[in-house]
UniProtKB/TrEMBL annotation, chains A, B:
Residues 15-75 form the HTH tetR-type domain. It comes from Paenibacillus pasadenensis. Keywords: DNA-binding, Repressor, Transcription, Transcription regulation. It holds the Pfam family TetR_N. The lineage of its organism: Bacteria, Bacillati, Bacillota, Bacilli, Bacillales. GO terms for molecular function: DNA-binding transcription factor activity; transcription cis-regulatory region binding. InterPro entries: BetI_C (IPR039538), Homeodomain-like_sf (IPR009057), HTH-type_TetR-like_transc_reg (IPR050109), HTH_TetR (IPR001647), Tet_transcr_reg_TetR-rel_C_sf (IPR036271). The keyword DNA-binding applies. Residues 38-57 bind DNA. The keyword Flavoprotein does not apply. This is Transcriptional regulator, TetR family.
Amino acid sequence: MKGRDAEEKQTFIADARRAQIFEATIRTLDEIGYIRASMAQIAKRAGISAALISYHYRDKNDLMDYALMKLATDLSSSVLERTAAASGPREKLQAYIEASIAYQAENPARSTALIEIVFHARTADGMPYYKLQDDEDDPLENELRRILRLGQEQGEFGAFDLDAMASAIRGALDEYGFNVKLKARIDPIRFSQELVDLFSRAIGHR
Amino acid sequence: MKGRDAEEKQTFIADARRAQIFEATIRTLDEIGYIRASMAQIAKRAGISAALISYHYRDKNDLMDYALMKLATDLSSSVLERTAAASGPREKLQAYIEASIAYQAENPARSTALIEIVFHARTADGMPYYKLQDDEDDPLENELRRILRLGQEQGEFGAFDLDAMASAIRGALDEYGFNVKLKARIDPIRFSQELVDLFSRAIGHR
DNA sequence: CTAAAATCTGATTAATCGATCAGAATTTAG
DNA sequence: CTAAATTCTGATCGATTAATCAGATTTTAG
């Protein structure tokens, strides 16, 4: 009960219930947003009583933290798998861009839920997650910087500022998650192709 | 009273009070975020009673809509002024990037407040502002597209997809507002210089 | 100066929130 | 089969919210 630590053994029922509550949380965040995502709304979508959520999660923060961690981990795994399968720096960067956009296109509800949590949830002392800089171990950010650094060291990429290039790429990728009009104008495959071409020129050394 | 339409004449007191409430709203959003920004919190920072806000604004939505419009208008004016002062497409793009980053650096509280409203406020039927595509007349978006189109028509820029390039630039600029770690690593002047160089290569036709 | 209009406050209302609790229902263990 | 442990619900609690209202105060107009 109230499980949250990874090492705690869970029963089958508790595991299934927690997963069901997680899915209902994603759906609720996608449909009505963080502010209106009350325990009652999540419980309604899960088909259970609101009190049961409090039984399986310590409190609402615990639930949202778990959801954020799971969403971020799944996204990272999907992208990192595909970059690992590519060989050179340029191919890895292409895989990184394509996988990031593809994940957003294939999991719109999860992408929206992730945005909702990141921009709404705050630490106990009021610091918003989107302003948090403790993500020194954000795997996605680290992998992008690693690829860019590798490409420069191998002489495959030209000269550019790593911080600026990394944030420009991240910003462009995230933009596809926010901008509905953009999604309507360009399908994900073409958009990722355009980004690959665009940043290929920005990186230099054809 | 309850004024919101532009054509309504306001008394000096009402105008000053509305401005004072607007400033308190910005400060509240910056300090504690949208979710905790209750009427009582805003009133406390303005040094007035909470009921007085309801007297000068129809409801909380009216207040937030007004704040969003004013913040967006001020930002647009600042950027558009500096792009208008530049001559060619390449110079206009540079001015656009520099002005966007400079505004964020010079008005951190306003930038944060703008983000808070855009990612929290929703229309009556629940559509979040950040997903809204009715900004067909977003002056900043339009100006950027106009510059890029002009540069291509004049042969000053190379071949690229306008939608992808515009959103990549917008994403990179917005990233500086979100990413605290980025702000700590690069000062705004150097970051805008790097972005100018970076996108200059992406656009082509040195 | 005086009456009307505008401005402002404290109190109050109804709704919604997260969380807790006692106890019912179900599952597990021996 | 039986007792213990787990799972689950409905009721309820105190806190917080946006909004309203009567009436006090201040400003404006003549």
